[in-house]
Design brief:
3 helices; 30% helix; SHC Adaptor Protein; Double Stranded RNA Binding Domain
């Protein structure tokens, strides 16, 4: 996996680079070797921060870690990214198996068609009189379902999707998962505004508002 390093007011040592490359290899086993990763190290007062972004063919992972050292912050960010990659892989496996289960569970029950008796046919006898034929024919009567009701879309005002306090990217992801929400608008301690939302395929996408 190709890894891009960025340092802001910190120094990236050789041991830290090797630790990052080893962690990215573990993530590449899940997301594929074609994935691209970028890691940014920075310091905020006495706290060391590591933020990483991994972009695969069908998935984008954003994770961050905080600690007293860059090694600890990187370790926390890699663990969080691995958790996201494994959860996305499990969802894909379940999604592939789901159609077969739905076909078995949602098979329509076998029902017999309604029949309606027909008036007995008449048959002429040898003396010119008409005789009734004992056999009866059955005609299937089909009933069609009523037209489905049309539900008009409506808009509901909701202010819970806006975070009032500054958050880091990791805190925003954890807050979104904890509250089981698909959208969160927040700003980081530096004042940058972001939109974090969950796409239909389950991925968390981060949008930076210029």
């Amino acid at each position: 996996m190709e890894v891009e390093f960025t340092a802001r007011q910190v120094r990236i040592s050789k041991a830290l680079r090797e630790q990052a490359e080893e962690g990215m290899e573990r993530i590449a086993r899940i997301m594929g070797k074609t994935a691209h990763a970028s890691i940014m190290f920075r310091a905020q007062r006495h706290i060391q921060i590591a933020e990483l972004t991994v972009k695969g063919r069908q998935q984008t992972i954003v994770a961050a870690g905080k600690a007293d050292s860059l090694e600890g912050a990187l370790r926390e960010a890699i663990d969080h990214a691995l958790h996201q990659a494994q959860r996305y892989r499990d969802r894909r496996v379940e999604r592939k198996r789901l159609p077969m289960e739905e076909k078995v569970m949602t098979a329509p029950p076998v029902t017999r068609a309604k029949t309606r008796a027909v008036e007995p046919a008449q048959k002429a006898t040898g003396n010119g009189k008409l005789a009734q034929k004992g056999a009866r024919a059955a005609i299937a009567v089909h009933s069609f379902p009523a037209s489905a009701a049309v539900v008009e879309p409506h808009i509901v005002n909701n202010g819970e999707a806006i975070a009032l306090r500054p958050m880091t990217i990791e805190e925003a992801v954890k807050d979104t998962e904890f509250r089981d929400r698909d959208l969160l608008i927040f700003h980081n301690p530096s004042g940058d505004l972001y939109v974090l939302h969950r796409r239909r395929d389950g991925q968390m996408e981060l949008v930076e508002i210029p």
